Amino acid sequence: MSETNILSGKVVSDAVYTALENRITSLAHQYSAVPGLAAVIVGDDPASQVYVRNKTRRFLKMNLHSETIRLPEETSQKELLSTIRTLNSDPVFHGILVQLPLPKHIDTDVVIKAITPEKDVDGFHPENLGQLTAGNPRFTPCTPKGIMRILEHFHIDPSGKHAVVLGRSNIVGRPMSILLSQKQSYSNATTTICHSGTTDLRTFTKQADILVAALGVPEMIDDTYIKKGAVIIDVGINRVKDSSEKGYTLVGDVNYDAVQGIAHSITPVPGGVGPMTIAMLVENTVEATENVYT
Ligand code: GUN
């Protein structure tokens, strides 16, 4: 039985940060500019709090500017839109991120559209999603962009392969399928997108040379779903309650132990896709800053 390789997002993200250092230094020397991110979080969803904290910590570690705007759960859509408008016109912030999901009484699409596309470092604005779809991306959503970097770093070329994406969200699945099917190097895959309406999921997953799992169902994908030699990208970050001090353990959408020796390689949870989402957010914010000055 051949061993399954670990695709460490931690290793790839460290390389991204090293590569960004020169660009950050140039911005400081040439324009006295420090990339700045405004992170907006509404409500107190514990997982979202952790994600935003991890993002802002990284900005501070890179000596970049980051501020978190915390709004209570009962914030009205009007108040949130007003906050975004203020951030849109504040030159200190080159990037604006509104952490999702938002409370149910707020229309996410309206909020995303309110972010000026030039500061939409998440790449969720319809203008930016449209540019990506047309093959001329401005900001690419961070998680799928990070996954493409993992593949490239480990010399896994999707060209001519069958990539199967599980999930159709605007955050991961949909942009992922677009990125994997582009006519360019380290892409060019035949791409299938599966979702909650897919009949007989295994028919598709068993054909996957590259399987991207972004379903949000803890450890659903086991050995019965995959083909021998498949590359598995596990996007899931699920909290499963246990008796540990924290009260939970993080698991992916893939049953990591079950696919050992069958998969060619797999991203671990944690330490796989998660660190890359943050690295791409930093990269997009540096790019947004460069766009202001160059
Ligand atoms: N919720 C889950 N992933 C993301 C992300 O990449 N950006 C934002 N803003 N919210 C998220």
Account of the 3D structure:
It is a single chain. α2 (46-61) links the parallel β2 and β3. By secondary structure, the protein is an alpha/beta fold. Helices cover 38% and strands 16% of the residues. α1 packs parallel to α9, α6 packs across α7 (173-180) and α6 (142-153) crosses α9 (273-293). A six-stranded parallel beta sheet has the order 1-11-8-7-5-6. The protein folds into two domains: 32-117, Rossmann fold (3-Layer(aba) Sandwich), CATH 3.40.50.10860; 141-273, Rossmann fold (3-Layer(aba) Sandwich). The protein is globular and about 55 Å long. The relative contact order is 0.17. The protein contains nine helices and eleven strands. Guanine binds at residues 97-100, 122, 142-143, 171, 277. Guanine is lined by residues 97-100, 122, 142-143, 171, 277.
**Percent in strands:** 15-25%
In the CATH hierarchy, what is the architecture of the largest domain at level 2?
3-Layer(aba) Sandwich
Instruction: Give me the CATH fold name of the largest domain.
Output: Rossmann fold
CATH homologous superfamily title of the largest domain: NAD(P)-binding Rossmann-like Domain
Sequence-ordered SSE layout with sheet pairings:
Elements: E1 5-6, H1 9-31, E2 36-42, H2 46-61, E3 65-71, H3 77-88, E4 95-98, H4 108-114, H5 126-133, H6 142-153, E5 162-166, H7 173-180, E6 190-194, H8 201-205, E7 210-213, E8 231-234, E9 238-241, E10 248-251, E11 265-266, H9 273-293
Parallel strand pairs: 1-11, 2-3, 2-4, 5-6, 5-7, 7-8, 8-11
Antiparallel strand pairs: 9-10
Helix pairs in contact: 1-9, 2-9, 6-7, 6-9
